[in-house]
Every structure is written in C-alpha cells, then in structure tokens.
Specification:
202 residues, alpha+beta, eight-stranded mixed beta sheet, signal, DUF4920 domain-containing protein, DUF4920
C-alpha cells in the first residue's frame, strides 16, 4: 500500500531536504569511524546543520532555528483538524509551492516514525491514524534516539491535496502494477509542518 510519507518527502526535496537521500553512501563508508565515536559526536555528524542542541531548560532539550516552549501546544489531531478547514488561506512553503495552511502553530506528540538517514523529518499520528509529517527547517537534523519520545514542534503547517491520478503514478513508481495502482480511486490530503524549533520534553 502506498504510504503517504513517500509522496510528501518527495515534495520536501524542493526545499532542499534531498540531502537525506545522499547521506547513505558517506554513512556507510564512515561506519567504522562512527561506530567507535561517542554518541554526542555521532549526533553532530551533520556539521553546519545545527544537530547540536541548545542547553537543556526546565522543559526540555532544544533543537532547530529557534528555542521554543510547550505553552499552547496542540495535539496532532487538533492540528490536522485545523488544516482540514475550508477557509484556510494560501501560504508559501517552498519555491513555487503554495498550499492551504497556518503559520506559527505548535504541536506536541510522540514520534512514531522518522527519517532513518539523517533525522530531517518525523511523524506524529492521531488516534484515528492520520499522520502529521514534521520536517526540520534548513535540515536541522534530530538524533535518531528521538524515536518514540514526546516532542513539541512549532512552525508552518500546511495541507497538500493529492489527486487519485498522482497517487496512482506514485504507486507505479514504487513498483505496483498498473492494475494494482488503478484500485486507488480517491485522492487524499497530506498534513505537514516545517518546524523552526523542536523541543524534546523531559
């Protein structure tokens, strides 16, 4: 079954997040070096990408362009509901990209999936199974140890409406047959947030 994260991560390549695709080879070649390195050094292997966190505060550990707090954070379900509203304004989230969205929204939840190569995106999920995909602005990577932890993220949230035809094309690109892809008859909406700051809660 086609996974929604596949389509939206491909969209994030427009923003320059394609670096996570290119890190597999250098990581493999440096595997012996990183295996012996302390965890703190491995977290900082994205030199210049801000992987090193800000100091610990009373609320938690901070990553990203801005230090944030947990005040007023919504659940993933609340953010998804806000993005489903019909009266949302259009906002720019990438070069030549506009979608219905909300600026400066804050969400709290448990990470259920994340980028295995560089930690440049992660997923929060609602009780109904809807996904909110959070990417880190300017490739401010997160340690993979964040998996399963509770975080707060703040930034630009938007919805991407994907047609059935686009989903069929992506399904075939992922290896499904034309007959299998033809079973996709309805479009779907992707819910995303580009985070200017992420806080790992204590």
């Amino acid at each position: 079954m086609f996974k929604s994260v596949t389509f939206i991560v491909s969209l994030f390549l427009v923003l320059g997040f394609g670096a996570c695709q290119n890190e597999a080879a250098p990581q493999e070649s440096a595997q012996e070096e990183t295996a012996a390195a302390p965890a703190e050094e491995q977290h900082g292997h994205h030199e210049g990408h801000g992987a090193v966190p800000e100091p610990l505060t009373e609320e938690g550990l901070h990553y990203g362009l801005e230090k944030i707090d947990g005040a007023g954070a919504k659940t993933a379900a609340e953010v998804v509901a806000a993005l489903q509203a019909e009266d949302l304004g259009m906002i720019a989230w990438g070069e030549g990209q506009e979608s219905p969205g909300v600026e400066n929204i804050k969400v709290e939840g448990e990470i259920v999936e994340m980028c295995k190569m560089s930690g440049c995106w992660f997923t929060l999920k609602t009780a109904e199974g809807q996904e909110l995909i959070v990417s880190t602005a300017e490739h401010k990577a997160l340690p993979k140890e964040f998996m399963g932890q509770t975080v707060v993220a703040e930034g630009l949230a938007f919805r991407v409406d994907v047609s059935a035809e686009e989903l069929q094309a992506q399904a075939q690109a992922d290896g499904q047959s034309e007959e299998e892809a033809a079973k996709i008859t309805e479009g779907q909406s992707e819910f995303n947030l580009i985070a200017k700051g992420v806080m790992l809660k204590k």
